[in-house]
Amino acid sequence: MQRPVFQWRLRARTLELGVRTLVMGILNVTPDSFSDGGRFLARDHAVAHALKMLDEGADLLDIGGESTRPGTPVAESGIPAAEELRRILPVIEDVLRERPNAILSVDTYKAEVARAAVNAGCEIVNDVSALRWDEQMAAAAVGLNCGVILMHTRGRPQEWRNLAPSADIVAEVKADLRDYAKAALAHGIAQDHIMLDVGIGFGKKFDQNYPLLAGLDQLQELGFPLLVGTSRKSFIGRTLAHDGKDAPPDQRLNGSLAAATASILKGAHAVRVHDVKQAVEAVKIADEILRFSK
């Protein structure tokens, strides 16, 4: 199955999507991320890790200053924008000082943070809420004229444990992403600025992530490039459980690579990962297979 090719327009450049899979490295400048909470909170550690991911072949980096792990209060009761900016702006500035051509994305649902980060040099706003948790975000994205990633989330992190499972997760995600994209276009965001993320693990029950990955090819009908982030997610830990205990995040690498590979073979244009070197190698193999797919 061939992927459609897109020209994804960012703030200062355009990326070709579909000829090869892009690898987005994750940099959480937070004390409480589910996978690496606190590890890169110090500015020098965060910058060093960012440069390492670029050296390992990351095409772009996604920098976030607020955790959206399950149970975390967000939106009305999340951390203040000022604290989020205090965490990420020095890192953005230092990375771009060292690597002026690096492509950076800011992982935020707050318009104030998006504006400051893009003005500091980010070219993409990656919004887990798909512009829905801050009524100013859509207007901010229009004004910034940058790349925009709209992610599917069922409810908010503090609600996930009590959400009823979806009757048809692929149909639900497809319908919701279509609505999010239509709303973004109606606000004035250009179609070629938009990428969609299926939101693996975000409000989905453990066993619903697999049918979502299996049905990923159906989302190509939406007409936008697709980003998939499976790296170290809880559903992988559950599948790799030993003696009734889920595999911890630092023991989910092989499962993460398998899930990322599967997503590419089903049409993902980019994958969001913690382990860049290993992902780059897996992506090369998956892309070679796609070259010979009918």
Task: Walk me through what this model shows.
The protein starts with 5 loop residues before the first strand and ends with a helix. It has a single domain, classed as TIM Barrel (Alpha-Beta Barrel), CATH 3.20.20.20. α1 packs across α2, α2 packs parallel to α3 and α3 packs parallel to α4. The protein is of the alpha/beta class and 294 residues long. The radius of gyration is 18 Å and the shape is globular. The strands form 2 sheets. Strands 3-4-5-6-7-8-9-10 form an 8-stranded parallel β-barrel, surrounded by 6 helices. It has 9 helices and 10 strands. The protein is 37% helix and 15% strand.
CATH architecture: Alpha-Beta Barrel
Give the helix/strand class: alpha/beta
Helix residue percentage: 25-40%
Q: H/E series, N to C?
A: EEEHEHEHEHEHEHEHHEH
The largest pleated sheet is described as: 8 strands, parallel, barrel
Query: What is the CATH C level class, in words?
Result: Alpha Beta
Strand proportion: 5-15%
How many helices?
9
Average pLDDT confidence is 92
Measured on Cα atoms, how large is the radius of gyration?
18 Å
The named CATH superfamily: Dihydropteroate synthase-like
Q: What's the overall geometry?
A: globular
> Quick one: how many beta strands?
10
